[in-house]
Design brief:
- The chain is α/β, with parallel strands linked by helices.
- It has 17 helices and eight strands.
- It has a six-stranded mixed sheet, sandwiched between helices. A two-stranded antiparallel sheet has the order 6-7.
- A hairpin with a 4-residue loop joins β6 and β7 (about 385).
- α1 (about 5-15) packs across α2 and α2 packs across α8.
Amino acid sequence: MASLSQRVEIGSRYYRSTETIHSYFRAVLRAVLKLYKLVIKLPDESTPSEIRNNPRFYPYFKDCIGALDGTHIRASVPLSIQGRFRSRKGGMTQNVLAAITFDLKFSYVLAGWEGSAHDSRILSDALSRPRGLRIPEGKYYLADAGYGIRNGYITPYRGVRYHLKEFSDQGPENAKELFNLRHSSLRITIERVFGILKKRFRVLDAEPFWNFQTQVDIVLACCIIHNHIMGVDPNDLLNQGLFEESDSDLIISTLTEREEREEAREWSAKRDEIAQTMWADYMTRNIIMGKGNKEGTSKQFRWTKPMEHLFLEILAEEAQKGNKPSNSFKAFSINRVAEAISERFQVHCDAKHVENHLRTVKNQWQIICTIRDQSGFGWDDNMKMITCDRATYDAAVMAHKKYEPFLNKCIDHYDEMALVVGKDMATGSFARTFADIDLDDDNIDSVPIDCKNEATEEVRTNVSSSGTSKRKRKKTQESVEDEQIKLVSEQLGEIANALKQFTADKTPHLYEEVMSMEDS
């Protein structure tokens, strides 16, 4: 796809404004999106040949129809909503959910969710949409452990070796490890597809300059073009060498029926051994907790840095899952933190401890926000640090001693704090899939390519719809729309006149220029 500078160059060479080139770009983009019905196909219910023809996978995965996962694509959005798009790594991204078949094609894509949203929340949205992800009865996709177990897809065992490199020195030692290894060998296909997509379309890794709705549409268009290329040239050199896996079974021995039975017996004995060890540790921990956590000692609970890190990590994950309605966490989220801290640090931590510490973190966040809103202070987003000169520092600390821990020092776990106690939460209001394209036929051309577009839409959605004020706004809006229609009509007339003056001998040169851009 052409960059902004390329389009400006074309516009100047052929005496066309940037707005005209933008309109050509939008027309082509929309045409590509219309191709989804031809190239984006849901998998059928037959067993994929990649599974049927491989004894490592068949008949164990005979009902598997593909793999699904999420990937983050760079995003550019107005400052007012950037908090919702900040991913765990700190950058602005959109979280894209995709389902693929084992021939490296996309079968479903949902783009546009904010980068802070948890993968499982996006999957729930995809499954609940009227024309969303549909899974045939009895079939399933492979997904990673972050999605949890649900009807229609299978995740690996938690706490068991999974990634291929973890088996490089020693093969699987039990049934769960064998399942995880073969699950990983199949599911890695989607990582390969994401790698091909981003390598083929460098625009997905570049800083976007379109409005966000166009950014979402570009992701969908890239997936459509990818499928088309895979259909006409599946042996394209770009498809080779990414996440290739050896066909040899050096790390997975082919088991006979007798060996499988022996392995099952060995795993049963190992499971008993683990259960006995777990029970012994549990009893020992109860004895320790009984001696060190008598009634009334909850007031003496002390939070360490590792405890705070685990506290924020879990609650940030819960917030991304949507378990923070009305700016407060659900009870089971609080209990999850208490149980995790008790188990990992061998202490007695209950829900009351977690709630008290949450209030402390909220107070810290309020101080941070208050400082950042004052003049004289800067912000280093890479270091997560509030900056100021020496004079400002001395004056601020003298007036507010509580400011000192947050000035000219990296703020630990800032991104997690923003998710846990901040008010920016992902809503999924920008998310689009291919099925949504038809719904926009009547109004897609009216959306201006303006980076302020999302902010405008957000303001519109927040306007009250009450009584008389609504009627007044409606009249005002109609008047504004009339003026806009008149202006657009005049501009269309100018464009029509310009097109009439566009001589025929320049058309071949324009075509050659566009094609040369595609080749480059």
